[in-house]
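Curious: can you check?
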Amino acid sequence: MLSADDFEFEDPEYGGMLEGRAYDLSTTLDQDALIQLLGKLSGVQGVMVCRSSGEVLRSRSVKDPAGLGSVVAASAMLFQKRALRLMSADLGGQTVCMCPLGAYCVAVVANSQANVGRLLVELQQLRVAA
């Protein structure tokens, strides 16, 4: 009979990049640091940091940050009403993964080749600096 010890669960790309890191998203320095780290994940095409109102604070490689900001604002309302921590939406050829962080929200736009599960795990690791 096989047990968990008989399998290897290592992903060569997975390094838990964001594990244990906290970000003060009121500062452009931490916004940029977070955008750079998320941008290194395989399949990521763009990253956006915005307020839960949808106001875009920083973005990189997002073609329509204002349009995506409205999606994030609508999602932020869902996050508040349903106590959600993560959300993923398929936009036909692209996937947007979002995570609320206090008064802010982080959105990652990924191509169809991205490992969405891994993106969600990385986003789940994010913490707001006190």
Observations:
- The first helix runs from residue 28 to 39.
- The chain has three helices and seven strands.
- The radius of gyration is 15 Å.
